[in-house]
Amino acid sequence: MRSRVICMAVFLALSGPALAQTQVAPAASSACSRSPHMGEHNRSAELIAAHHAMRQACAADEARFCANVPKGCGQEKQCMMTHQAQLSSTCASAWQNLRATRHHA
User: How many CB atoms lie within 10 A of CB 98?
Assistant: First the structure.
C-alpha cells in the first residue's frame, strides 16, 4: 500500500507540468484535408515575412502553452488562440502585424 502511494506521488509529480498544458483534440482523421502550405504560392512576400516573424516571436509561447499539441491541421494555431490573453507582448504584437498584413494584402 505504501509503495503504491509513493508510486502515485511520483507519477503525479512528473506528469503535472504535462497535464497543465493545453491538449487539443485530434482531428477526425489522421490526415489533414489540405496540404500544410496550401496557397503559399499566392501569398505576397510581405505576408510570408510577417508569418515568419510571427512564428519566431511566438516560439517561446508556443513551447510554453502548446508543446504537446500535434503539428499540422491548424491545431497549433487553435491552441495559441486559446491562450491569446496569456501570450507575451512580443507574440501578441506579431499576431496583430500578421492580421494587418493579411487585411492589406
Answer: 20
